[in-house]
Design goal:
seven-stranded mixed sheet, FAD/NAD(P)-binding domain, binds NADP nicotinamide-adenine-dinucleotide phosphate, 22% strand, 34% helix, globular, alpha/beta, Rossmann fold
Length: 448
């Protein structure tokens, strides 16, 4: 009998796993599950609306979905609608491709004040993720916004805060987010790096893109553009092209600049957040100057004791993502990942039969979309090497699913939603006008 595999999660790592499985075995059948009635995970809900070129990667996933060995079951949540035990019983092997849905915490006082939110929430909100449409951000009367972290997510949210209507209105941002962002009084974003320019986590392309947008002035304080001796020596000896380009960019944007009628994005370095301040809502953030130190062969930072308050009405923490645990599946709460050996899930160090993991849920929230391809191939190789320990039992799992979760949606349903979103978008001059409410999606495909 052909092998039956369940893949949970329909983001990039899930699709790359299916692609590798199809390549490895002409007989294999893959059923992919997603808790939303829409596929593509972070490509749909994470990649910024003005990065449509990056989103076009879904064409490769569409090809996978056209394969007759593939089925997609949307609007089915592992852990609530179905259990891991049920999947392991009905499939030969199960692959978790559930990504990293929640945000890391900064762990500082005041983090829970209204107006202090994770970039993860903000991104999901403007990208139409149905779970985040009721979230409110104090955009209207806020002039200064602080973004903590200097990775690509920090770049995305800063750009969305400062970009013009013309730049955003043609994208697939929700109408609500577009209106709120455009009515926002935000004219200054302070992006905080706790280490120096040599350790900035953004890629040169992302920061360059912001600098090239009309109406945004990227600025750096003179003293914060200077490399400390440890970083200078590291850059000279080991720095890669990206780190060198980032340092060159930062240094080119330091110093006095001609005053223009522009929104400002201040890239700050050597400052770590210590406390979010405010009476009932965010009014500012206290940061501490840092110095770079060598720790276990790594350039880390430590506080100097010198502090500064940056007034701000909104603080977005963009300090990384973490996975959410699933009932019945071993989880490492410290790292926010599913512990694994080359992709096979481990329980207290012991391999769990037939259970595997890919993508951010496996290795943590690092790398670009393409990074997931090799990562998924590696897990599939492990799946082939270990073989199936407990073969699937019973008839086609669809019979069980139809009975257990009758309102699940399939790929044809998604294609209907996709066509409707594109058509609605075309009427408004946008690439796509996304559904934001699950019952509306279900109604559109007659699954309500
Ligand atoms: P990231 O690249 O890991 O950046 C996280 C940033 O947060 C770093 O600057 C980190 O500084 C800082 N940070 C962590 N903990 C902190 C703390 N407690 N206090 C202050 N700062 C702290 O993560 P990300 O921006 O979430 O991105 C995740 C992945 O998605 C990355 O691989 C990214 O490239 C990718 N991505 C790509 C795109 C794109 O290509 N357009 C867009 C979005 C995301 P340290 O370095 O000092 O730890």
């Amino acid at each position: 009998m052909s092998k039956r595999i369940a893949v949970v999660g329909s983001g990039p790592s899930g699709f790359y796993a299916v692609q590798a499985l199809f390549k490895s075995d002409p007989e294999v059948r893959c059923d992919m599950y997603d808790r939303l009635p829409t596929p593509f995970g972070l490509v749909r809900g994470g990649v910024a609306p003005d990065h449509q070129k990056i989103k076009s990667v879904v064409k490769a996933y569409d090809k996978v979905a056209e394969d007759p060995r593939f089925r997609w079951f949307g609007h089915v949540e592992l852990g609530t609608d179905i259990t891991i035990e049920e999947l392991l019983e009905r499939y030969d092997q199960v692959v978790l491709a559930v990504g990293a849905q929640s945000a890391r915490k900064m762990g500082i006082p005041g983090e829970d004040l209204p107006g202090s939110v994770s970039a993860t929430e903000f991104v999901a909100w403007y990208n139409a993720h149905p779970d985040f449409q009721q979230h409110e951000f104090p955009l209207l009367d806020v002039h200064d916004v602080v973004v903590v972290g200097v990775g690509n997510v920090a770049m995305d949210v800063s750009r969305m805060l400062l970009a013009s209507r013309a730049h955003l209105e043609v994208t697939d941002i929700t109408d609500e987010a577009l209106e709120q962002l455009q009515r926002s009084a935000c004219c200054r974003v302070h992006v905080l790096g706790r280490r120096g320019p040599a350790q900035a986590a953004f890629t040169p392309k992302e920061i360059q893109e912001i600098a090239e947008l009309d109406g945004i002035d990227v600025r750096v304080k003179d003293d914060e553009a200077v490399l400390d001796p440890l970083s200078a020596a590291w850059l000279e000896a080991e720095g890669d092209r990206a780190a060198r380009d980032n340092v060159a960019f930062v240094q080119a944007h330091a110093g006095p600049r001609e005053d223009r009628d522009c929104a400002e994005m201040w890239l700050r370095f050597y400052v770590q957040p210590v406390e979010i301040l405010g009476d009932g809502k965010v009014e500012g953030i206290r940061v501490e100057k840092t110095r770079i130190v060598e720790r276990d062969g790594w350039l880390a930072c430590e506080g100097t004791g010198e502090t500064e308050v940056i007034p701000a009405g909104l603080v977005l923490s963009a300090v990384g993502y973490r996975s959410v645990s699933i009932p019945g599946v071993p989880f490492d709460p410290k790292r926010g990942v599913f512990p694994n050996d080359e992709g096979q899930v481990l329980d207290g160090g012991v391999p769990v039969d037939d259970l595997f993991v890919v993508g951010w849920a496996k290795r943590g929230p690092t790398g670009l979309i393409g990074t997931n391809r090799q990562d998924s191939v590696a897990t599939v190789n492990k799946m082939l090497a270990t073989g199936v320990k407990h073969p699937a039992k019973g008839p086609d799992p669809k019979e069980w699913l139809d009975a257990k979760v009758p309102k699940h949606v399939n790929w044809e349903d998604w294609l209907k939603l996709d066509a409707a979103e594109r058509a609605r978008g075309a009427e408004k001059g946008k690439v796509r006008d996304k559904f934001t409410v699950v019952p509306e999606m279900l109604k559109h495909v007659d699954k309500h």
